[in-house]
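Sample log: SMI1/KNR4 family protein.
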Amino acid sequence: MNDTDFDMPAAMAETLRGREGAWALVRGFAAHWGEPLTPDDGFTDAELDAAEQRLGLRLPVALREAYRLFGRRADLTSCQDVLLTPDELYVLDGALVYRVENQACARWGVLLDDLAQEDPPTVERLDLADKSQERWEPWEERFSTAAAVMAMSEKLMEDDGLSLFFEPDEELPDGLVELPALGRGCRWFAGPEGLVLLVAADDYAFARARTEQALDAL
């Protein structure tokens, strides 16, 4: 598929149907808004098996698929927050932690009780001053959805001259249309050469363009 043929609205909608749709979205998104995925962009089964042996548990199928597909692509996993490598995965209060906010203000994980599911729900835990008040709270209904949203949002935060952060206190540029809902607290808008993400009740936003000229236009 040529990246110009990428139908992002359809791919986002298909993501909600299951993990195969999520991985198709990640592939198409990576090619259209950055660089196509390659076989070297993921971790190996041996590395994931070693993590399982160290932790004494089985990783969900969807988590293994995500790590194999794009776990090493920092532009899709670790521009802002950090996807832990297999040898960094750890258990905290009944959940397997796979992602950490860049200042450790939050963690994302999968409850140990849900690990047997192929595509389990995810949870979030905020880092609070009063540790007794910390709880795992529901996040995305499927790990694959959380992983696809991570890939898209991290790319919009990449410091490569094609992305920017802004306060959404003005109208969005003309020519942007709202995309299907995907991700907790996320609203997505796209045009021919630009993509905008509004996060957390429109408190802040990120934009990305395919070229520097398109970013100037945004």
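Observation: The chain has a mean pLDDT of 92.
Observation: Residues 154-217 form one domain.
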